[in-house]
Design goal:
- By secondary structure, the chain is α/β, with parallel strands linked by helices.
- Helix content is about 45%, strand content about 15%.
- It is built from 14 helices and 11 strands.
- The strands form 2 sheets. An 8-stranded parallel beta barrel has the order 1-2-3-4-7-8-9-11, surrounded by 7 helices.
- Helix 3 links the parallel strand 3 and strand 4.
- Helix 1 packs parallel to helix 2, helix 3 packs across helix 5 and helix 12 packs across helix 14.
- It starts with a strand and ends with a helix.
- The mean pLDDT is about 95.
Length: about 325
């Protein structure tokens, strides 16, 4: 089965407008809608950062069938894990079978301004993520949870509203260590496109190793990838649209510790258009988009979530829904 989703760019659009686009995505034939969870956007000028937690409730109530979730949320700094357990328990109870909690280790851009904290190293961030997911799962499975971890504590905590089946947790990874953990402990895996041989060489082998170590087989394990696509009948417009998300072309070393959107915007604006577009599938030819997606599908990714960079998302959804999604389903069903 091939699942085709829409990435709701919370850093680019105000919440009501973003909700309109996401409803259009369902109408255009997309199967899922995943939203980023940012406290601050990638750029200051015309930036947005609505609360993903509030917004997902509106999304669930405004749609009927699409899977909804975060790609991704960090349940370790701005949020205590017990709060995330409560929020996603509520969402799962309201929209059963439609909610996914997508998580990652976080970025300074979101956590430092909101908390004033010192940004910790990867070892601590990963340890916090593991501990937070252990606590969230206990809160979904048990009552009166008293938890004494290295980073988090609860005392006789109960989540009263939760679905019969726990919300699946997808873990985002950009390296082998977290990818292995995602396979061992997650119900799904999240990564992003445009990173060369990283998938075959590093991420997918580590994911498979983790799956082999899981406590039980996971035949329905979801391998999800955010596909960076810029599609328009006007090829020049498709290329120019990538400037809106030039920050994605910055290396992890260039952006991981940046917490000021103005500085992120400055770094991104200095990139030439060729580098700004380097992470994107840029083409006016729908068949080319299908062929560029082929490598990812053949690697085993069966859940493609499409992120378009341009301001006219309604135009993208109409064009992609008409010209690309049917071709993808015919090619890979």
């Amino acid at each position: 089965m091939l699942t085709l989703g829409y990435k709701a760019s919370a850093e680019q659009f105000a919440p009501a407008r973003l909700l309109q686009f996401s409803v259009l995505a369902e109408q255009a034939g997309f199967d899922s809608v995943f939203v980023s969870d940012h406290f601050q956007p990638w750029k200051h000028t015309d930036g947005h950062a609505p609360s993903a937690l509030a917004w997902l409730g509106a999304l669930g109530a405004s749609t009927q069938r699409v899977i909804i979730g975060t790609s991704v949320l960090t349940p370790t700094f701005r949020y205590h894990p017990s709060v995330i357990a409560q929020v996603f328990g509520t969402l799962g109870a309201m929209f059963p079978g439609r909610v996914v909690l997508g998580v990652g280790t976080g970025e300074s851009l979101n956590e430092v301004p909101a908390t004033g904290m010192e940004w910790p190293d990867f070892k601590e961030r990963f340890a916090r993520l593991r501990e937070s997911l252990t606590l969230i799962r206990r809160l979904w499975a048990e009552e009166h949870v008293t938890f004494e971890g290295q980073y988090y504590r609860t005392r006789d905590a109960t989540i009263y509203d939760r679905p019969e089946q726990p919300v699946p947790i997808y873990v985002a990874a950009a390296g082998a260590l977290v990818a292995k953990y995602a396979g061992r402990m997650g119900e799904g895996f999240i990564c992003t496109s445009g990173k060369g041989t990283l998938y075959r060489d590093t991420l997918l082998p580590a994911l498979e190793e983790g799956l082999s170590l899981a406590a039980a087989p996971r035949p329905g394990y979801d391998r999800m990838i955010e596909m960076k696509v810029s599609f328009d009948t006007d090829a020049a417009r498709a290329l120019e649209d990538t400037r809106h998300w030039a920050a994605l072309a910055l290396s992890p070393e260039e952006k991981m510790s940046v917490h000021d959107p103005k500085e992120m915007e400055r770094l991104a604006a200095a990139l030439p258009i060729a580098r700004a577009a380097s992470r994107w599938i840029v083409s006016a030819d729908p068949d080319e988009h299908v062929e560029k997606c082929r490598a990812y599908v053949e690697m085993g990714f069966r859940h493609l979530v499409f992120h378009a960079p341009g301001p006219d998302q309604a135009r993208f959804l109409k064009l992609y829904g008409e010209h690309v999604l049917p071709r993808l389903r015919r090619a890979f069903a």
